[in-house]
Amino acid sequence: MSTTAPSDDIGTRLRLVRQIYGLTQRELARRAGVTNGAISLIEQNRVSPSISSLKKILDGIPLSLADFFTHNFAASDQVFFAAAELTEIAFGETVSMRMVGGNLKERALQMLQETYQPGADTGEEMLRHQGEECGIIVSGSLTITVGAQEKTLQPGDAYYFRSDIPHRFRNPGPAPCVLISANSPPSF
Asked: For the chain, which residues make up each domain, given as ranges?
């Protein structure tokens, strides 16, 4: 096994990219119009492809040469999160937001499990920020105000709105409200 970093090893990098995109060697070869053996030899680092050959192969994914050489395809980004690994964003003792993934740098989406205790409220001052947000009520009830609209949602109900419209969340019920939400771009 090679100890060369994937960015310096075209064969290893090609194999990682192909696997990330869920392609077999045969499927990539068919898409690119090359032989299955050519893909195999490149991935084993037994041949070094010309720039034009590599571009032809990457066009079958599709992926640019620049992305192929600059993107970090190593399996270092965490994909799965145990419940205990969710990052807690607490707003006092009445509102809990548990975020999937702690590092939001370069992410376009933020996913949360939110819990509002009975009487919990995001505050008298309406929230407002760039982006969009949506959510689905899992249990309890939640009154959501978006601009001039207001509605109390029950389990299974959902919302979706532009976040630059002033909005507010509050739990009017006797039980905690749990919901799953997402916002883009991340705002917390």
From this structure: 6-70, 83-184
